[in-house]
Amino acid sequence: MTIEAWLQAAIADAERRGLPELKPLLESLAEATRALRAAGFTPELRDNPKSQS
Amino acid sequence: MMTVEEFGRLLRTRAISAVEMTEECLARIERENARLNAFILVMADEARRQAREADEEMAAGTDRGPLHGVPISIKDLVDVRGTPTSAASRVREGHRATSDAPVIANLRHGGAVILGKTNLHEFAFGTTNEDSAFGPALHPHDPSRSPGGSSGGSAISIATGMALATVGTDTGGSIRIPAAACGVVGLKPTYAEVSAEGVVPLSHTLDHVGPLARTVTDTWYAYHGLVGRWPLRQLSATPVSGLRLAVPRKYFCDLLDEEVRTRFESAIETLRSAGASIENVEIPHASLIAPIYLHIVFGEAAALHAPTLESMPERYTTPVRLRLEMARYVLAEDYVRALAGRDLLGDEVDRTLAACDALVLPTLPIPAPPIGANTVRVGSTDQPVRNLMLRLTQLFNLTGHPAISLPCGVTKAGLPCGLQLAGARMQTDALLRIALAIEIVLNR
After folding, report:
1. CA A29 to CA A32: how far, in whole Å?
2. Which residues in chain A are closer than 8 Å to B292, comparing Cβ atoms?
3. Residues on chain B bordering chain A, Cβ-to-Cβ distance under 8 angstroms
4. Confidence (pTM)
5. Rounded to 5 degrees, what are φ and ψ at B127?
6. pLDDT value, residue B82
7. Distance between CA B428 and CA A44 in Å, rounded?
8. How far apart are alpha carbons B341 and B71 in whole angstroms?
9. Residue contacts between A and B (CB atoms, under 8 Å)
10. Of these residues, B17, B89, B154, B174, which one is catalytic?
11. For residue B436, which of B217, B278, B263, B277 has the smallest C-alpha distance?
């Protein structure tokens, strides 16, 4: 799932649940997720982390 | 204000009794607690009974060690039998602990006197102590400011002499942050070194239990009291001459309040003058600490709180409830990516520590923030308070390395600054020996 698709779905779900206040929090979480994904961490690298340096 | 070390010396020469020390702490609580809101529950009668027993035992020739008769406070996240463990939340209404957490049992076995339970950020899910079912705890030097959190009440109890030592918990910095903000010592031991059983969890792979006290030696006593194992030798300072300290400048020193920076650089120069070698180092993936931390703490906290977020959402304070609700949207795939990133950070810290004795960095990039502030100006930009408070401490929750915060001077307004040291995993005693050496040099 792309971050954009996730964010849209999360905001829509929060509004459906009566929690529209979550929108700015979810947007800031999306920024953190973008940074995390851009780093390219994958579970395989847990066994061979030096290849990531 | 007396230290554990001074009290122990006086107790053993009969110059003071445990009852007298306990009464002094209770009197301070009586004077200060209405103003600072540090304690949620004061166990005065129980404390007096324990103090009398400690004196009777000592008179009969039974000495339980350095914590014998020492009045301590406990963060209200830790089970003390017969009392509620509120976690500063109405969600926990009706709870009563049927047994002591192992750390409390260890402290009792060591002869400690339990004064009561201290205030915290609700469920330890915050760094300012503002969101608590019992109202905010306030900074001891300036009540318009936060004492830091989440173990804010614990830090206040030490800074004001309401207790001689205290038990806190630290998931992203919750021992070291209030220690730095209030001008006391706070230790996060190595991950899993101190039992977290009987402690309300927040994030099971990041939660740590540890002590706060007025000095490094007192912190060492309390740490061993929590573990329930006394070392054969007294804590001694590592010689500063030849000590190899490494400062991770990039990221960790990029965003500092100017007064905090001045105190930190002054401490570094003092240590250099005393003979320590100081080297600049880099944690290559430091800029990713916050995203990695957030996805792990949110994923784990959401799993723990999902049932009560469904059944009694109105019992949470609004800010904590909203952040926990946000946390429920973290995807499993991103949690797993964050675990991989955490392993990488652990390797990077290990590699850095292989070439030095300890990392040294500020604990907090800012002095204690005003209550209610969402942002604080650092340099020319406004920064979110929560991000700033966690910025320099959360790495060592991710990696599990032991880390300690020591007082490092005060700002012109009299607000304390903290110096943080981190050492090799399972080498908490070695870190404390270095911390003692640095404490001595900085206090000269």
Report:
1. 5
2. 36, 41
3. 284-285, 287-288, 290-292, 294-295, 298, 322-323, 325-326, 329-331, 334, 336-341, 343-344, 347-348
4. 0.97
5. -115, 5
6. 98
7. 31
8. 42
9. 76
10. B174
11. B217
Helix or strand holding residue A5 (H, E): helix A3-16
Q: Is B188 known to be catalytic?
A: no
pLDDT at A46: 54
- Written as six digits, the tokens of B10 are 């006086």
Q: What residues in chain B have per-residue pLDDT under 70? A: none
Chain length of chain B: 444
Residues 6+ apart with CB under 8 A from B390: B127, B172, B173, B177, B290, B293
- Which residue intervals of B88-233 are DSSP H helices? 102-109, 152-159, 176-182, 216-227
Non-local CB neighbours of B171 within 8 Å, separated by 6+ positions: B124, B150, B202, B203, B206, B207, B208, B297, B397
Paired tokens of B183: 């001008």
Q: Could A39 and B288 be called an inter-chain contact, meaning their C-beta atoms sit closer than 8 Å?
A: yes
Per-residue pLDDT tens digits for B4-36: 999 999 999 999 999 999 999 999 999 999 999
What ipTM, to 2 d.p.? 0.93
Residues of B243-272 as b/e, b for ≥16 C-beta within 10 angstroms?
bebbbbeebbbebbbebbbebbeebbebbe
From chain B, the residues in CB contact with A52 under 8 A are 344
Is the CB of B338 less than 8 angstroms away from the CB of A41? yes
Q: How far, CA to CA in Å, does A39 sit from each of B202, B258, B284, B399?
A: 26, 31, 12, 18
d(CA B322, CA B420): 31
Please give the structure tokens belonging to residue B194. Answer: 């101190």
Q: Are B168 and B184 in contact (CB under 8 A)?
A: no
B73 bridge partner residues: B116, B166
- The amino acid sitting at B153 is G
| CA distance linking residue B226 with residue B220, whole number of Å | 10
List C-alpha distances in Å: B114 to B108, B328, B408. 8, 37, 29
In one-letter notation, the amino acid at residue B9 is: R
Quick one: DSSP state of residue A50? G
For residues B295 and B261, the answer to whether their CB atoms sit within 8 Å is: no
